[in-house]
Amino acid sequence: MMNDDPGAILAATDALAARIATVRAAISRSIFGQGEVVDQTLITLLSGGHVLLVGVPGLGKSRLVETLGVVLGLATKRVQFTPDLMPADILGSEVLDEAEGRRAFRFVHGPVFCQLLMADEINRASPRTQSALLQAMQERRVAIGGVEHALPRPFHVLATQNPIEQEGTYPLPEAQLDRFLMEVTVTYPGLDAERAMLLATTGAPEAMPQQAMSADDLAMAQALVRRLPVGETVVDAILALVRGCRPESSDDEIVRRHVAWGPGPRAAQALMLATRARALLGGRLAPSIDDVAALARPVLRHRMALSFSARADGIVADEVIDRMVKAIG
């Protein structure tokens, strides 16, 4: 167990900050102009959570997951979600073996038995298949034929979703959305980044990402995140923000009128871990209210729903969250 002495935590934070700088440099050789997306994804992994990457095709979402798997030294599997995908295609299944005249069932592991699972276009699979990931994402284990099988540690799901193509898709249920620590919006790269990408990917063979951490290093970093101190002002800001986005407890008229349901306690837990991880990513010993404000959108936007009147008025969840961020100062 890690020493909780402040001096030991500070030394571990400094050492990890140097390692993370190496990780960022390794990622930047393959991913261009998506610094905020990379940081938010790293924050999610340092927090021990799962991330939903939302963006149109061709923005490098799949490439980001593949690069992270190499740079962080994680065993990575990829599943292309389609309408005919079955739960057994993800979790695995029991097969009947016959050897020396004896028959017995043997469990064949599915792709979920990895450390970094890329669920590509997760909203294209049926709700039955989507729900197969629920237990794995929450409890890091799956039950097949009444027998529970533990998943490798660490275990993370990085799912992608196309926000513009809705034909032949199935919206993710709220219970599954809540299991994603963040919903990260992937936007178009800037001009300079896109120019660098063109030159790097259409000429000589591309530089391959190099490993900069191991799975054990990531597990130690996740343990360190949970030991970073959090000031009362930050805790109060998290509670005020999350509770302020609930129509039942908010003092804001816009929230009470336009939010159908707000984020639950898991949102506050996610925000607490994410702010610690963001501080660690910046080489700081403790998070600040600025960390809370910076992570409010990706942590909360998929954990609340707006009413029909809000949609008719053109109000989106990010605008409501921004109002609550201003309220916490």
Structure description:
The chain has 2 domains: 227 residues, P-loop containing nucleotide triphosphate hydrolases (Rossmann fold), CATH 3.40.50; 101 residues, Helicase, Ruva Protein, domain 3 (Orthogonal Bundle), CATH 1.10.8. The protein has 14 helices and 11 strands. The strands form 4 sheets. It has a 5-stranded parallel beta sheet. A two-stranded antiparallel ribbon has the order 3-4. The longest helix has 23 residues. The radius of gyration is 21 Å and the shape is globular. The two termini are 37 Å apart.
CATH architecture of the largest domain: 3-Layer(aba) Sandwich
The number of helical segments is 14
CATH superfamily of the largest domain: P-loop containing nucleotide triphosphate hydrolases
Q: Averaged pLDDT, please?
A: 88
List the domain count as a whole number.
2
Decide which structural class fits the backbone.
alpha/beta
Largest sheet: 5 strands, parallel
Number of strand elements: 11
Q: What is the helix content?
A: 40-55%
Terminal Cα span: 37 Å
Q: Which value, in Å, is the CA radius of gyration?
A: 21 Å
Provide the CATH top-level class of the largest domain: Alpha Beta
Mass-distribution shape: globular
Across the major sheet, the strand order is 2-5-8-1-9
Percent in strands: 15-25%
List segments where confidence is low: pLDDT < 50 over at least 5 consecutive residues.
Answer: none
